[in-house]
Structure formats: C-alpha cells, structure tokens
Fold Phycobilisome degradation protein NblA.
Amino acid sequence: MNQPIELSLEQQFSICSFATQVQQMSHEQAQDFLVKLYRQMMVREATYQELLKQQWGLDSGSSMA
C-alpha cells in the first residue's frame, strides 16, 4: 500500500468547493466547523470499529473460549 490513493474528478471538485466555502467563513465559524467535523470523524471511526467487531465476531457478547 505504498501508492497514494488517487481521488476522482468529482472528489477533487468537492475539495475545491469545500475550500471556497471555508475561505468565506469567519475565524470563529471555521473553528466551530472544524470541531464539529472532527467529532463526526470520530463517530465514523467508532462506527467502523463496531461494525468490524460485529462482522468478525469480536463483539463483547460473543464467547471466544
């Protein structure tokens, strides 16, 4: 996995659009937005972890012994 992942043209456009929106925000708006975005990323990560645990049978309710 040494090669960087390429973004699609749609994803690249989305990033440019996002950058334009952020540039128009005040400093306080940008800070608030970043905190909310970071929280959303943490929730997504926790959701992925929980889904993987369930898929692999590693959830706390299963018995491995």
